[in-house]
Amino acid sequence: MRCAALVLGLLCLGCRLTPAPSASLGSSPLPSTTPLPTPTPLPLSPALTEKLSDAASRLRAQDASALTALLALESDAKNSAVLSEQLAGLYEELDFTDKLYTLALQATRLDPQYSPGFVRLGRVEQYLGYFDQAEKHLREAVRLAPHSSDAQLAYGLYFQHEAKWPDAERCLKAACDADPATWQLAIVYSQILVQEGKFDLALQAIDTARKVAPDKQMLVFQRAITLAEQATALEKSGQGAQAAALRQEARPAAEQAILKLAQSGPSWFHLSKLRQAMGDQTGALEALEKAHALAPGYLNTRYVFAQALLRQGQRERAQKLLTDDAAQKRQSDRYQQLALGVGQAPDDSEKRRAFARYCQEHRLINRALFEWEQLLQRKPTDPEATQQVKTLTAQRLKDMTQ
Question: Taking a C-beta distance cutoff of 8 angstroms, is the pair 379, 348 a contact?
């Protein structure tokens, strides 16, 4: 399933930088789960399937000709929602926001009954900060295909981002029910249940997935971390003895699983919290060191690591990390502020111009190009946008083919 790749990306690599949730977006009822006939899109021809497969192989092999192969498919995609959506997926791997958005939108216009097109469009709109549009299109994806795990997952992740836990829970449960073989879904589902304090249900979801995939160490680790989170909740309610017992159960499993998840920064971060709670300061610092090396931007890893170094007396190194963390936070806050402004007023050319300039200044080439192109659509004769689109397109092509 495609959703497995999405979930693994979120779990192992952390989410991409996205604007802050929109405070103005009201709660939306989940769409009806009344079964609907799933539309059958026209399949790709053998020739197009082969061309798409070849482009994907070149892309994943980091072949310099990959971009040429992708560009050659764009004319064919103008007549196919399926090809548009799948080609958008390949551009997503390159983080080509402009191509991704255009092709996802094209897929929904070519076939308004094709749920994967709305999934793709809603996800990129959420990334762009177009939260109202994202919710609308993800809701439509689920309406068209209520038993699609891809659609339910995407809608659930949207609600998770908005901290609307009951809606996120219902979507992820539907995704797990639709595709019980994709064990990664159970991890996201359990994380949402933990947010709601439903620890027994979270453990049940993980144990159910382990029956399907008993050898997956990420499930073992997630179960251990869920026990650790439950222990923290018990400790806060004055049940210290029960909390200690859960941690004693959780730690051996987590320590064993981490050996096979060595390249997962988030896993090391959560293990450090467990070690810290059990009084192992040295072990916690070692885990934080690895978490920071692998994924410094995950949650508040850099800041927590700096604080741990301060407690160990390593002031110079800690101060450098805190300085870096503050700089990253300022940049992230400014990015989010500008992105949210554009998302709330997409036709405000000056807000979009300011955001495009900011992205270009900070070497966020793909997002800058997207914003300049969007501005040019609204003001076709704008000289700055015209020049920047030409410049950035040429620069990206040069970078890809070197």
Answer: no
The mean pLDDT of 352-369, rounded to a whole number, is 95
Other Cβ atoms within 10 Å of 289 Cβ, number: 15
Spell out the residues 6+ positions from residue 245 whose beta carbon is closer than 8 angstroms to its own. none
Query: For residues 187 and 11, what is the distance between their CA atoms, to the nearest angstrom?
Result: 9
Using CA atoms, how far apart are residues 106 and 113, in angstroms rounded to an integer? 13
Q: What pLDDT was estimated at residue 4?
A: 58
Q: Which band of pLDDT confidence, cut at 50, 70 and 90, is reported for residue 26?
A: very low
- What global pTM score does this model have? 0.85
H/E segment holding residue 141:
helix 131-144
Question: What is the DSSP annotation of 310-344?
Answer: HHTT-HHHHHHHHHHHHHHHHHHHHHHHHHHHHHH
Given a cut of 80, whether residue 174 has pLDDT beyond it is yes
> Given this model, what pLDDT does residue 35 score?
35
Same fold for the domain at 65-163 and the one at 263-329?
yes
Please report which confidence band the pLDDT of residue 311 belongs to, taking 50, 70 and 90 as the band edges.
Answer: confident
Does the 263-329 domain belong in CATH 1.25.40.10?
Answer: yes
Reading the block at residue 256, the tokens are 């064993």
* 263 and 9 Cβ atoms separated by less than 8 Å: no
Nearest to 391 by CA among 402, 399, 380, 379: 399
The CATH number given to 180-261 is: 1.25.40
Give the C-alpha separation, 306 to 321, whole Å: 6
Domain boundaries, the chain: 65-163, 180-261, 263-329, 347-401
CATH topology assigned to domain 65-163: 1.25.40
pLDDT of 45-91, one tens digit each?
Answer: 999 999 999 999 999 999 989 999 999 999 999 999 999 999 999 99
Instruction: Report how far residue 67's alpha carbon sits from residue 299's, in angstroms, rounded to the nearest whole number.
Output: 33
Q: Which residue has the tokens 């920047």?
A: 388
